[in-house]
Amino acid sequence: MELATESVNNRPNAPWLWRLVATGLSFALFGLGGLCLRLIVFPVIDRLPGDALARRRRARLTNSRLFWFFVQFMYRSGVLTYEVEGAERLGRPGQLVIANHPSLIDVVVLVSLIRDANCVVKQSLWDNPFTRGPIRAAQYISNNGSAEMLDEAAAALQQGQTLIIFPEGTRTTPGQPPQFHRGAAAIALRGATRVTPVVISVTPTTLTKAEPWYRIPSRRFHFHLRVGDDIDPQVFASQGSAPIASRRLNDHLHQHFIKELALDEPTTA
């Protein structure tokens, strides 16, 4: 997959007005695409031969490929450039992919790199008419804050699925370090064979929690995704009770991301 292997950061900067129009077109395309998937594509996929597992895999593959095309549209229209390091290490059985969440398209890029990924998503996306079709067809997990969500996520990992989680639960506040909730660590200890941290940086910042989509930066933004080394959750599970192990793993992940994000901060002369 092109996105998984290529660094694309040398495209000439497009004019600001064109990038504003292209950004609007990108999100219009995303919304209309979600509706088409819900009303046309997934009803057809559901009628193809195969059991429930086969239908789920087809739905996840469809999401992955279309998200890849969406990222390519944003790149080719001059909205962004991108760089991905280590994508070949994503998509392994029982793998919990933990990422920080600086922008609106983080999950789009990650899912585009993994053909059969599960993902914990906000409850509001389950109810959104533009996103609920792809989310429900792929059987992503709703982050509704319940204990059942933790059970469902751990069970998915135990079944050999690859699961994506953003431990912050929402996009990072610009200028602030990420703040991880302990739920992702608890899930890792209960079901993951490996935890793989993925550090995401967006320069200049855009599509953050505090910004509407039309407040675009003065130049196209660069999306950098770096896959880190695996972490064995059992190392932490052996260090004490479940709450203690969860806290220690969460602290380890938090410090890892703070250190790695510091490497991506722009330097001044």
Descriptive account of the structure:
This protein is of the alpha/beta class and 269 residues long. The chain has one domain: 3-Layer(aba) Sandwich (Glycerol-3-phosphate (1)-acyltransferase). The protein has 10 helices and 7 strands. The protein has a 7-stranded mixed β-sheet, sandwiched between helices. It is globular, with a radius of gyration of 18 Å.
Write the layout of secondary structure elements.
Elements: H1 2-5, H2 16-46, H3 52-76, E1 80-85, E2 95-99, H4 106-113, E3 117-122, H5 123-127, H6 132-137, E4 141-143, H7 147-158, E5 162-165, H8 183-191, E6 194-203, E7 221-227, H9 233-237, H10 242-263
Parallel strand pairs: 1-7, 2-5, 2-6, 3-4, 3-5
Antiparallel strand pairs: 6-7
Helix pairs in contact: 2-3, 3-4, 7-8, 8-10
Transmembrane segments: 20-45
Pfam families: Acyltransferase
GO molecular function: 1-acylglycerol-3-phosphate O-acyltransferase activity
Features:
alpha/beta, 7-stranded mixed sheet, 269 residues, globular, 7 strands, Glycerol-3-phosphate (1)-acyltransferase
